[in-house]
Amino acid sequence: MDAVGPDEAAFLAAHTRVFLLGTRADGSPTGWPMVGLHRDGALEFSTYRRSQKVRDLERNPAAACVVAPVDGPRALAVRGTAEVVAADPDAAADRTPTDVRVEPEIAARARARMASGQRVVVRVVPTDARWVPGWTAE
Amino acid sequence: MGTRPDITMRPDEIRAFLATQTRAVVVALAHGAPVGSVGALTLADDAVEVALAPDDPLVALLAADDRICVIAEEFPDYRSITGVCAHGRAEAVAGRDRPTWRVTLDDTTSFAFAKIPRA
After folding, report:
1. Cα–Cα dist A85/A44, whole Å
2. Residue B38 and residue A132: Cβ atoms within 8 Å?
3. Per-residue pLDDT of chain B (119 residues; tens, 9 = 90+)
4. Is-above-0.95 flag for pTM?
5. Which residue of B has its CA nearest to A16?
6. CA nearest A33 in B: which residue?
7. How far apart are CA B1 and CA B80, in angstroms?
8. Segment holding B18, helix H or strand E
9. B11-110 maps to which CATH number?
10. Domains in chain B: boundaries
């Protein structure tokens, strides 16, 4: 059975404000606010290959995500496993989310760094998902 | 390669930012794996307090392992992205309507994109 049902999949496709969660070297929990895109059954995050989050997730790929739109009464808490893959700058150009306001020169710089290999993609395939109160919940 | 600008926030900036935030992502551990939820956030001197729904699975997880991370963030636009992650031990706070924990601000990571120099 899929970990993500149609309601959850629609929510993931509609919202890009995602907190990527992992563990530090000492095993304690940590996290990073990110732009996350739902693609091919996974949440994907663009980041620097040399970033702390990549080091942390390669050490321990047990990961989680909280998808939490700032104007929504509910959020989706996802658990899964992270993998780090090469970035595809052409795919990234085609999938710029409409709700993320990034200046064109910054987006172009990010694509150039993907092409150079400086940036990679972290993919988290959900194994479990549950609804939790969102940013505007009482 | 150029030197990356320091966009971390000073302690007073962290407290000022957290004072404006009412929600946060709360992260606990289940057998060494992170588990997240969303809680109500308040700033309490040099700590934050987070409250969860009584039936939230993190309530039991934090009772078993008090290591916690609390993340507050806002992203009105790229140049204004601001965030704070507080790492530490979750100290239960008694006498509240909902399960509540206190986390000190001794171990934080932070970022304020407004500090990135403009070209």
Report:
1. 10
2. yes
3. 457 788 999 999 999 999 999 999 999 999 999 999 999 999 998 999 999 999 999 999 999 999 999 999 998 888 889 999 999 999 999 999 999 999 999 999 999 999 988 76
4. no
5. B75
6. B73
7. 25
8. helix B11-18
9. 2.30.110.10
10. 11-110
